[in-house]
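[audit] Reproducing an earlier prediction to check determinism. Same input, same settings, fresh worker. If the tokens differ from the archived copy the diff job will pick it up downstream; this log only records the rerun itself.
[audit] input (438 residues):
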Amino acid sequence: MFHPFFKVVKKTYIALVMLSNVHYIPAQIPETTPLPGGNQVECSSGLTIKYFSSHNNTWKVVVSGMDIEGNVVKEKIKYKAIGHDPNKILTWKLFSGVGSEDYWDLKPLNSTTWNSTGEAYIPYEKHPANNSDFGEANGIVKLTSGSLSVLSTDPIPNPGKAIKVYFRKDDPNYFDKNVPNWFYYWSQSAEAKSLLTTEGIKMFKMTGDIPMLNADPTQVTFSLGYLNTGTWKWNPNGGVKVTYGNTEAGENWYPRVAQFGIVPNSNNSCNGFRKVMLGYGEINFNINIGESCGYRVETQDYGNIDSDIGHHSPGTTVQFIGIYGFTSVLKHEVGHFKVREKFWKDTGYDSDLDCDHDLFPDAWEMSPQGVDFGFIAGNMEEYNGNYNSKNITTAGPSAYYQEVFCRLLETVSKNEELKDLDWSYDPDPNSLFQGKNW
């Protein structure tokens, strides 16, 4: 049968032969292209992936989860293909494009066989250990019909893209039922751990009777815990006292918790002795965060802490939603130790500079800023954690200053550092706390 395409090819071929020695490859012979990792895909112009999605959100799917009663919830994935030979066996796979094609162990829903149009699901047991395995990392759909295969990353008429894979935000985590998915996956990412790491303080070491200051600070990385009882519990109705986070690292760890060395022959010191910090000892570098951090965090913007006076009247109340709230609380709690870094990172802690042992240098306590916060050199100011979060002026100088300092850390930006890592999905269609990438 005559076809105009073959007429054009024939004429082009003849012209090329006259110019050079050309090897003509007939168009009707299919080519095969090896994928990385050795997977062979035989292309077919007719076999096409039309859609593959959950909750009518094109090219996005959700791993099955577990409700609060412990029942597995199968998250439906609707799929459709065209160009399938009904006499050929059809299979659907979802994986990274290399290695095992059963990464997500994709299964047909309510059937034992695959069809060109239907529903599928990713089993609950296939939750990965790492947040980095969500998103597009393992999101290539492979559709096979007999000996022919196409990928979702193939060009038009196929999608030309990878599928994004999500987890159900508030479900109990597969690996630790005591924490929700959002806490487990957001907290173990490398980017979150970078927020939990801070420079630290330079330490002394004793060379005989002489204290020598180390060249570099000793870095600190905080661990992270989760609490959801009492004031740590999320209350969507508001109007109750809420605890977002805490850490003991900002409290006074002189003289018993941290490790100190006594410098001999220091009778002229303000206390008749001189102690220098040799190590962190038993300082508890752990941060607990509450259930509210996965939903909404409310704080106040206090302006500029480096102003000498009059800077500590709170301005606008600020709210951070979802992973932005989680990020803000990490910054806030690490900030309690950054207060110590501000004063001692480069000099090391030396009791001769802090005669009242409250971890604030005497010279700074006598400065306009120190006086403005209520510090009095010679008075040991303990951290008072029992204060009204909306009226921190009554908390005492140490907690007052630390809270202003830490709230500035969490309000100076939009806290979007972890936005690209948020692969959470909230099943509530009216949710105010939907994942940032859904």
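[audit] rerun output stored. Observation attached for the diff report: Residues 36-168 form a domain with the Immunoglobulin-like fold (CATH 2.60.40).
[audit] end
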